[in-house]
Design brief:
The chain is α/β, with parallel strands linked by helices. It has 15 helices and 14 strands.
């Protein structure tokens, strides 16, 4: 087969930094390594950003997007539709992240062409695409058009079930887990080196060698269970007065979090670090990764923590329970329970996972959740769709 020419449409891409951005960047990079000619199309969220750039050897086109929310979305949809129609002869397939405005615009622009369109559902529950379509203006219209896509991808079985329950064709829905790159495993030596490098980057990131460091990485939003995490932290502080809590990421909940830090006298222990392009260095420095989310989901940060070999503590959900083999590869607690979360953090820091357990977690990522595997499964789906298109045309 000739080289596949793929357009990857995503609302979240570098220089923005976060879970969705990491997934798309890893997917684009790994597909390129498999011989796919990938072009990323994304909004120009900041007017100072270039309209064209290359990221990890992947060309990226940034389309106009106005600052105002409603008008900005419309402007981007029009720009995306025009771009797809203009360059239709230069790509074979389009994969769109999120079943939202981007998908609506893409399917509308390509409805009279033979170009297959694949939609990726990125999350589930109250923050997922199915719930979004049921609650926003024109959601039912967007849903009706999204259901015309050639295939759908869900990152977990839970989200795949949500799609089927919302009326998306089961026979067109595939479950392809998100994946992360496999860097070097965490060791005492690189823990020390990582802490030294972070302290050199900024004095606020200095952590004493003997002090526990607990890291959360993800959106700074209430749905991620951060209120409970801050309430639980004094339990850790009582056991280790020098312990540090880093909240890595950005979001609308940051002002509330700062007030909670102040109210509990935690401003010396709890720090909102902002985002990092790569999490590996932060996780090498950590002693525990915590995910207190209220909702279903397996974010890339959790997968990266397992790949690095840092102990993990998560709140219960079907996907996370399966990922951690029911608790064999990490500790699981009930969501929204600050007391249980605090006790579990202390217990995990006092009794870390065994080397065998941490190695098993890394093997699980290598075998089932690597970015190379994620890209290979996407490519298999894309090639099936193009082969079916060729059979139909002949």
């Amino acid at each position: 087969m000739t080289q596949l020419r793929l357009v990857l449409v995503t609302r979240k891409f570098w220089p923005l930094v976060g879970d969705a951005e990491a997934v798309m960047a890893n997917l684009a990079d790994q597909l390129r390594r498999l011989g796919v000619h990938v072009t990323v199309v994304t909004p120009q969220w900041d007017r100072t950003w270039p309209r064209q750039m290359v990221y990890r050897e992947v060309p990226v086109t940034l389309l106009p997007h106005a600052p105002r929310r409603g008008w900005g979305t419309l402007r981007y949809m029009y720009a995306l539709s025009r771009w797809l129609r203009q360059y239709e002869s230069e790509f074979d397939l389009v994969c769109v992240s999120l079943l939202q405005h981007d998908a609506y615009a893409t399917l509308g622009a390509l409805r009279h062409t033979p170009v297959p369109v694949v939609l990726r559902c990125e999350s589930g529950g109250h923050s997922g695409d199915c719930h979004w379509q049921e609650t926003v203006a024109f959601g039912s219209r967007i849903k009706s058009r999204c259901q015309l896509a050639n295939a759908f991808i869900a990152p977990t079985a839970f989200i795949a079930d949500e799609l089927r329950g919302a009326g998306y064709p089961a026979e067109l829905t595939s479950t392809i887990s998100n994946g992360v790159p496999l860097g070097p495993p965490r060791t005492p030596a690189n823990r020390t080196a990582a802490r030294a490098a972070l302290a050199e980057a900024h004095p606020l990131l200095e952590v004493a060698e003997y002090s526990p460091l607990v890291v959360y990485a993800g959106p700074l939003e209430e749905r991620m269970g951060l209120r409970e995490l801050v309430r639980a932290w004094p339990t850790v502080a009582d056991a280790w007065p020098g312990a540090k809590l880093w909240l890595v990421g950005e979001g609308s909940y940051d002002a509330v979090l700062w007030e909670q830090f102040q109210d509990r006298g935690l401003t010396e222990q709890a720090i909102m670090t902002g985002s990092f392009d790569e999490l590996d260095g932060v996780l090498h420095a950590a002693d525990l990764f915590v995910l207190p989310s209220h909702e279903e989901g397996i974010p890339p940060a959790l997968l990266t923590a397992l790949a690095v070999g840092v102990p993990v503590l998560v709140t219960d959900s079907p996907g996370r329970r399966e990922l951690l083999a029911g608790g064999e590869l990490g500790r699981i607690v009930t969501p929204r329970d600050s007391q249980a979360l605090g006790a579990a953090m202390v217990q995990t820091l006092k009794e870390p996972r065994t080397a065998a357990s941490l190695a098993a977690g890394r093997r699980r990522i290598e075998q089932q959740f690597s970015s190379a595997r994620m890209a290979a499964e996407h490519l298999q789906l894309f090639e099936r769709l193009l082969a079916a298109k060729q059979r139909k045309a002949s």
